[in-house]
Amino acid sequence: MTMSVDKKNTSPPVPKRRSFLTKIWFALGIVAFAEFLLGGVSFFVSGRKNNAKDSCAVTIEAGNINDFLPGSVTLIRAGNCYLSRLQDGGLLAISRKCTHLGCAVPFVPERNQFECPCHASIFDNTGNVIKSPAPRALDLFPIHFVHDMIMIDINQPIKRAGFSADQLSYHQKKA
Ligand code: FES
Fold first, then answer.
1. Pocket test for ligand 1, best of 95, 97, 103 (most atoms within 8 A of CB)
2. Cα(43)–Cα(67) distance, rounded to whole angstroms?
3. How far apart are CA 7 and CA 111, in angstroms?
4. Any bridge partners for residue 93, and if so which?
5. Residue 128 C-alpha to ligand 1 middle, in angstroms?
6. What gap in Å lies between CA 123 and CA 105, rounded to an integer?
7. What are phi and psi for residue 167, nearest 5 degrees?
8. Tens-digit pLDDT string for the chain (175 aa)
9. Which atom of ligand 1 is nearest to the CA of 117?
């Protein structure tokens, strides 16, 4: 006696619900991809705006030349820098940022020098290193004049090994 085997397909038919879910997943994928694209576009647009801002000169008014006496060092808070006027009238716009690890360096008038509170570097009133670990002089910022007004470009720090007389800016050129 032989038994016949029914070879009919016994797997259940694919439900319509499965194709519906596939469509939903496909739609969600498209939405996620669109959000990804929009996020990327807005990232690049905002990045371009910031770059444009960074590449522009940022000039601040430090004050009238007559307000800075020879032999003075004045904090220019808006520029995060000092305006040091030497005895001969020459001006330096000196960064507050220590060249060792970047701490803000206060000026100590009693000793006419900058003293870093972090690792005890000392700089004279031209920003020159008197005591390490600072590896080089404090950075400078370019100065120019609009009539009697001192303008400082705080977006272009100038790195330097040390002070030299050609770094000084004068309101009227020395004869
Ligand atoms: S950060 Fe100024 S001495 Fe180290």
1. 103
2. 45
3. 103
4. 83, 141
5. 14
6. 9
7. -85, -10
8. 444 555 555 555 556 767 767 777 777 667 666 665 555 444 444 444 444 444 456 999 999 999 999 999 999 999 999 999 999 999 999 999 999 999 999 999 999 999 999 999 999 999 999 999 999 999 999 999 999 999 999 998 999 999 999 999 999 765 5
9. 2
Please give all residues whose beta carbon lies within 6 A of any atom in ligand 1, as ranges.
Answer: 98, 100-101, 103, 116, 118-119, 121, 133-134
The domain locations on the chain are 18-56, 59-167
Ligand 1 centroid–CA 169 distance in Å is 27
Ligand 1 nearest-atom number relative to CA 103:
1
Residues 121-148 as b/e (b if ≥16 CB within 10 A, e otherwise) read bbbbbbbbbeeeebeebbbbbbbeeeee
Domain 59-167 has CATH 2.102.10.10: yes
CA of 101 to the centre of ligand 1 (A): 5
